[in-house]
Amino acid sequence: MARTWALTTTDPETTDKPDELGWLARLRKRLRILYHSQAPFALRFQAAVLIVDLAIIAFFIASPLIKGREYFLWIDYSIAAVVFIELVARALASTSITRWLRQLPVIIDIFILITLLAPTWLFNLGFLRILRLWTLSKSTIVWRPLIKRRLGAYQETIQAVINLLVFVFVVTGFVYTAFVSEDSGIVGYVDALYFTVTTMTTTGFGDITLPGTFGKLVSIAVMLMGISLFVRLAQLIFRPAKVHFPCPQCGLAKHEPDAVHCKACGHILNIPDEGSI
């Protein structure tokens, strides 16, 4: 009897949410398995979610080009429904919904959902929807298959590429929204993209410039942040890949694959090669 009482009082399924209905508890347990398990059926579900997310991001990139078409609102509201369902599913799959709601990627996703529900009023903020790509890059659904296939060493490089793409499209959307006019030379989305790339790479052909003091300040910010992202990406691509192997003495996490001693404290390391991992 004592053992039975201990099990019933310490079982997380019964103590986590004592006021939950039975069907809701079963649903949350099922969603946790689908989102976090590595079972074959869960991996297929996660792959499907990833494909849907990539399709949504493609729509966000194409939105400035197809806005005004008769089918735009239909696609927009359909994607809003998908994003809402996914947010609810992720919330139920979390162990603590309140803690989950405080995470920055979740806050960004909620903001994106709001722009989808009010595309006409908030279209000027629609360029921020591409931040969905950044929130997706923070998901274990993206990295788990790579780590499982021993491609985790490329995670920082892939993350840097994603950060660069997000920056390019956010700035492009902002420039298109704030400066589209004949005077600035930006009359379409491609012109805004062209200006962004030439400015952030400091190429500066000068055929498209942003007017006024505010335009100059935007150009300066794009150049400073853009070149920093490019340098960071180049470092990750051309520098030798490091392995994640915490030093037992000082805790330094990353070392060269053939390192014998920790470069921070000199402790002898025993890094396994790829064949023995």
From TrEMBL:
<protein>
    <submittedName>
        <fullName>Ion transporter</fullName>
    </submittedName>
</protein>
<dbReference type="GO" id="GO:0008076">
    <property type="term" value="C:voltage-gated potassium channel complex"/>
</dbReference>
<keyword id="KW-0406">Ion transport</keyword>
<feature type="transmembrane region" description="Helical">
    <location>
        <begin position="104"/>
        <end position="123"/>
    </location>
</feature>
<keyword id="KW-0472">Membrane</keyword>
<keyword id="KW-1133">Transmembrane helix</keyword>
<dbReference type="InterPro" id="IPR003938">
    <property type="entry name" value="K_chnl_volt-dep_EAG/ELK/ERG"/>
</dbReference>
<keyword id="KW-0407">Ion channel</keyword>
<feature type="transmembrane region" description="Helical">
    <location>
        <begin position="71"/>
        <end position="92"/>
    </location>
</feature>
<dbReference type="InterPro" id="IPR028325">
    <property type="entry name" value="VG_K_chnl"/>
</dbReference>
<feature type="transmembrane region" description="Helical">
    <location>
        <begin position="41"/>
        <end position="65"/>
    </location>
</feature>
<dbReference type="InterPro" id="IPR013099">
    <property type="entry name" value="K_chnl_dom"/>
</dbReference>
<keyword id="KW-0813">Transport</keyword>
<feature type="domain" description="Potassium channel">
    <location>
        <begin position="165"/>
        <end position="237"/>
    </location>
</feature>
<dbReference type="GO" id="GO:0005249">
    <property type="term" value="F:voltage-gated potassium channel activity"/>
</dbReference>
<dbReference type="GO" id="GO:0001508">
    <property type="term" value="P:action potential"/>
</dbReference>
<keyword id="KW-0812">Transmembrane</keyword>
<feature type="transmembrane region" description="Helical">
    <location>
        <begin position="217"/>
        <end position="238"/>
    </location>
</feature>
<dbReference type="Pfam" id="PF07885">
    <property type="entry name" value="Ion_trans_2"/>
</dbReference>
<feature type="transmembrane region" description="Helical">
    <location>
        <begin position="158"/>
        <end position="180"/>
    </location>
</feature>
